[in-house]
């Protein structure tokens, strides 16, 4: 059995859409939990499909691909957390309202727009509101800056690449693609197998990723904001709240209430499913991914989740530059952006929680799979049991939170109480998780430190 078959059977599919593009016997379906999943046909998946799956191809991992792509560039360096890099920055766009329209500093949309404006590409493959009313968002092709602007901001929503890959195959031109780490890796793997795609996709713009959500995430936010489940139309996941810190953002949910179309704004702190540490409605594949910084992208942008930047509610990006062309683009249009050089370690600190969960946490999850005698993807991190007991408990409880979140949402769908039923179902699991994340000896240690500081202060 090929590894891609094990990926599908074991629930490790991220739904990227690479395999159905190279192997038409495979189809992409939205499963009952609101996740895109690859489904095999009557025959065994092809060798090409196996080679293009970001969770099946163990030979071409992010380190190997990164070295091929960037290893020979003069001045390139490597950091185990962030991958290869030429420069690292924190900053934002000062021109044309990109920062206002973006989730944080507006850098990704600005970069894509610049590639269009200066004629480096003819089109951009990115996520924007869907034409298909059955979903909120999908990958689409934008050929102008105005079209591109429709895709600003992060979308915590399932998407897949097969249709835009087919478009690229059928339409000559030069393309840039924007994507989360595993999708950029999937694109690179497709390019290893398909000369046409390799020739036409010229630039890869990466997004820092916490994890990919099912449709239940968007639905739960809008539902809890007061829009009936069946009447939810759209969710803006990153609405900047005036006068608030960057970490204190809101959502805007649009739908029909009492026969009228309404848009409701809610701070995420008032919603029960928005804590990223809980991992509600997370794809299982994300628990077996060790790439946070889109290490195979030419440039990666994400939120600068550090105190010195988070206090600015307009938003700030961290930027990891890997290709000379991206470095030169930033230098050429330096008057449109504000950037300050930072170290790779500072970039890693900005994503500290995500990196810990995807490196230390993944190593423990691999260990658990091995102990159970179950197949799992081969990752760069190795299986390990050598972490503190309380961290093991945290990772186990997070796995249970994810599993129970899907069960709880299905219960809520059938209950007249709606999201209240979800929260009641999750309450005991959340209590167990919080207890694991904050054991008594950690609480005692913190209080002791506070007491020492007070005594020394006197």
UniProtKB/TrEMBL annotation:
Superkingdom assignment: Bacteria
Record-annotated Coenzyme F420 hydrogenase/dehydrogenase beta subunit C-terminal domain positions: 174-342
Provide the Coenzyme F420 hydrogenase/dehydrogenase beta subunit N-terminal domain boundaries. 89-165
- GO terms, molecular function: oxidoreductase activity, acting on CH or CH2 groups, with an iron-sulfur protein as acceptor
Name the record gives this protein: Coenzyme F420 hydrogenase
